[in-house]
Amino acid sequence: MSDTAVLRRPGAVAPVITPRDRWHAALDQFNAEQARIEALTAAERSAQENLWAARSALDAAQAELTRVRTVDKPNIVFSFIKGAALDRSNIATAEAAVTKANADIAHSSEVEGACGSELSQAERRLSIRRIDVNETGAAFLTSSPEFAGFLDRLDAAWVNLRTCMILGQELISACRGNCPHSVMLTLQRSEPLADRVGFALDSGFIEDWRRALAQLSAGDPDVQFPRKRTADMSQGEFKLHLAWRSRC
User: Which tens digits make up the pLDDT trace of 188-205?
Assistant: First the structure.
């Protein structure tokens, strides 16, 4: 996050920075670092290709220099015998090609090394940015009114369950040993707290949250958490629950 101080006029109201804003800022920094890594990766790949081409050019230039020197040996002898000036332009051209190829290799090697170094640093920064995204995303999620509504629903569910279980025992006692067996099983039964076939749950509420959490994980800046819903089961889920009870 930026530490830059912002000067405001006396009496000006400071902007409110919400947990969503902090998450958005962390996402922006993460995405920027990821884009930088992609650019550095492409640059490193290009430098490697240039290095390979420069090494191939050096091999060709050295082979040409060897050939020219071999072909030029008779000219050296005849020029010496005749006392004539020796034309060494072919050798000079071949030597210049070797020099250029060596320079290209040095430059491409330097660029490749620099890209690799920058890429390593960028990847370390990306890991830190990812932590920031996860931390601010968790703060955004758990500080949302929708999450608070979910916790209220959870608290209410536990209160309701305890109330029903306590009252169920008192109802059994009130029957003084005459409580029908099927009713007693219903009042004393326990059910799994995980998703199990045959046990009713508010699947729509779960799927709404799963979609929102998937958006949060994917970094969708427009994610909206599900609004508070009642704990009432849908008609289909209630029928499933009644069918289960009928088997008791």
Answer: 888 888 888 888 888 888
Position 241 confidence tier, pLDDT thresholds 50, 70, 90: very low
| Residues 6 or more apart in contact with residue 219 via CB below 8 angstroms | 27, 30, 31, 133
Euclidean distance between the first and final Cα of the chain, in Å? 59
Residue 109: give the domain boundaries. 19-142
Structure tokens at 195: 């998703």
Q: What is the pLDDT of residues 129-140, one digit of tens each?
A: 999 999 999 999
Q: Let me know: does 199 contact 121? Beta carbons within 8 Å.
A: no
CB burial string 177-188: b at 16+ within 10 A, e below: eebeeeeeeebe
Closest alpha carbon to 228 in 158, 156, 159, 140: 156
67 and 94 together in one domain: yes
The Cα 127–Cα 84 span in angstroms is 71
Are 87 and 191 within one domain? no
Our count of domains for the chain comes to 2
Nearest to 48 by CA among 103, 102, 114, 99: 114
Is the domain of 28 the same as that of 124?
yes
The answer to whether residues 76 and 92 touch, using CB atoms and an 8 Å cutoff, is: no
Reference 150, options 224, 228, 202, 204; nearest CA is 228
Q: Minimum mean pLDDT among 45-54, 56-65, 76-85, 234-243: which range?
A: 234-243
Residue 65 pLDDT level (bands cut at 50, 70, 90)? confident
Q: Is the pLDDT of residue 80 over 60?
A: no
Residues 212 and 223: beta-carbon distance below 8 Å: yes
